[in-house]
Input
Amino acid sequence: MLNIFSDSGDMVGNRIRELRKALGLTQREFAESIFSSHRSVQNWETGERNISSRNLKYICVMYNVNEEWLLEGEGEMFENGMPGPGESPDTSYRTRVEDIVNLPSRFIDKGANAFVVHDNAMEPGIVEGDVAIWRSVDPADLRSGDIVVLKPARGHFTVRRFLVHSGRKLYVADNKDYEPAECEKAELKLCGKLLEIFGRKNLS
Output
């Protein structure tokens, strides 16, 4: 876990404020984006209360923030540069499950990874802000109906349902606003199979 006491709370709070302003968010908007309270963000920024290691890690995952910068003030703010207007940061790296969601040890699969869902392709079952737990899988082991984790050439991980229909292998979203894509033609890299989804109530 992160050591949030490596710097004084007010200095970390100052950087949280700097990050929030760089993202163009109000305290309330920032709080809602990380499923926290307005009051908590206020307390972090003023140094009245230390941010938890879990919330701090969630911020880094959600906005692709350099952990060393947020904790120590060293390096660049963002891992891959500041996102442009309306552009989401690229969270292409993998994250350990236990770093962003608290799970009983029996549920933590060895080799599992996690990411924050950034789209609504699988609504209503999976929504933006949920944490997806996944592990790598051999494509030959997939079965029609499995939910898989995919990575576009640029952007966030996403989730689709793998279906075999009339001999065609497809990635299909539950949200009908998204078109099915043939696996072989899709500009999406298969990363793994979904193990579990944890909603916002598990992160509060």
